[in-house]
Give the backbone structure.
Amino acid sequence: MYNVLHCDKRILDLGAVEIREEYRIALEVCPTPLMLASRDGNIVLCNRRFAELFGYKDGELHNQSVDVLVPQEIRAAHPELRQAFFEVPTNRNMGTGRDLYGVRKDGELIPVEIGLDPVTSDESTLVMVSILDIRERKMGEVKIRRAIDAASSAMVMIDEHGKIELVNEQANRMFGYENQELIGDKIERLVPERYHRKHAVYRTSYQNTRDRRSMGVGRDLFGLKKDGTEFPVEIGLTPLDGADGRLVMATVIDITERKENEKNIRRKNEDLERLNHELTEFAYSASHDLKAPLSSISGILELSETDLENGDLEEVQTNLSRARMLAQRLSGRIEDMLTLARADHLDDVMEDVSIPDLVREAAQAVQGQSSLTPELTTDFAHGDPIRSVPARLSAILENLLANAYKFSDPEKTEHRIHVRTWDENGAMKLAVEDNGVGIPEDHLGKIFKLFKRVANSNEPGSGLGLALVEKNLSHLGGSIEVVSSQEGSCFTISLPHDHKTPASEQPAQRLEVAK
Amino acid sequence: MTLSVVLVDDDEIDRYITRRIVQAGLEDSKFAEYEAGDAFLEAIADPETREREIGVPPPPVLILLDINMPRMTGFDVLESMKGHLERDESLRTGVKVMMFSSSENAKDRETAFSYDFVRDYIVKPLTKQKLRDLVKRHYS
């Protein structure tokens, strides 16, 4: 285009402003829309292509002001700009960095690129204006832009110094920015501050390899929103080499939801593992503790057959009582196991529960457990009633009190059980303290296990009581602590005031402390 | 066949059943029983007590060891016996330990046989037939 201009200039240099026919012909044969304008902004000459581009008939533009071709909004400023050009006339493109438009006769705006060449003759300076119709190119750009904005992932293009060149709509939305807000900024604006220094290093070293890959494999990546919040991202990098330099396109995916899902799956897995472990333990214990009375009954019956043959009816009598006792024990164990299994499926309906009432009822239910008739004293100092699930709380209290009664120490002269309550750190605490036989230190860790009977006593029991306590407590969001010595044991439960059902499925926390 | 049979079991009724089966099936045998693992370990640790209550091989000693006992399980007893057996030549050669449990759990069998001095795994209750088979298997 400019070659043509220079060739035109040579021709014009030959004569004055007075346009000769030869010039007219030279302009006409040039394939570029060209126009020659005077210092005061009048169109001296233009070729047919120029007139056609702007929708004018041949010759119609002659002597008109160039301002008829200038969009309304800059028409007022245009004379001044024009003046500036003539003060420092250089060969250059008009409006670098701005989108330029020309106005057709019918008012339509068309995107153009404009070249300006000063043409100096003896008397005056003219300007040769060459126009490039960029409508098609603009349309192509719009299409590409639309495609980029339509992409479901966020895209950010940076130059080799980390300056943001392009941001698609999705990226703006993801990071909370608008329009061109991010253009020209450092890419580190989208990176949490603690990674800034490292990120700049990574960025520079990427410029050496420039391979197509995911960013930060094996590291957790985070994006920074305009409002300061961070979110986990996955980023793909694609180098784009071109006339504009060594660019990099980063494709960003917000993986908050995926991370959340992964966390959920992990938690569910842990729950399942725990349940599976519980089930295995349960099956193992059941194979011991449910089979044991049955094996014994079978042994007893075989002996009874022998005794019957030998006519030893007295021994048969004794053994039948033994068998009956074993059958009862087994039936009790099965009942306890069913209660335990049901503990997971209770309707957790919260009600106002009066602790003194519940303790009294529980004590009545279990006090037959000991022939030593311990004395029960109480001291209720919490805010009553509390919101809880009565069935669960009853099961907890009955089992704790049953143990306190059952493990009274026959060696001691006095037998005491003391129940006290108080409020502490948003929870109600309830302690059941006895002066019974106590729990040896090395057994404290096992007492909550299914079927574990650690007590050195002939007291019958299923070994399920404390497992039941723990399970019910976990549904109430509570926890239990044990302190024990030869002076007795103290079980303290803690029930949070603000617990909401359905209960978390975390196992109740517990802490075993030996005095 | 003359044997010295030792039973370690916390359950009173099971001890009664086993005692009667052993006494009926092995008439000349010596029979000793312990309610808990630690009592048994004390007895074999002290040579005098051992000689008085269990006897010194020969005759061979057969130990029936229950697994599921409070405080100290059968496996805890096995762990403690290891040391005794390593130190005592006569115990090592003359004593056969058999686990004795109502559980047929594979994990229990596996744990039991991980001790090289455990010779058998008997499922409760002990019957005349089981006792005959056991003697045939280990003492003929």
Remarks:
- Residues 1-16, 502-507 of chain A have pLDDT under 50 and may be disordered.
- DSSP finds 14 helices and 20 strands in chain A.
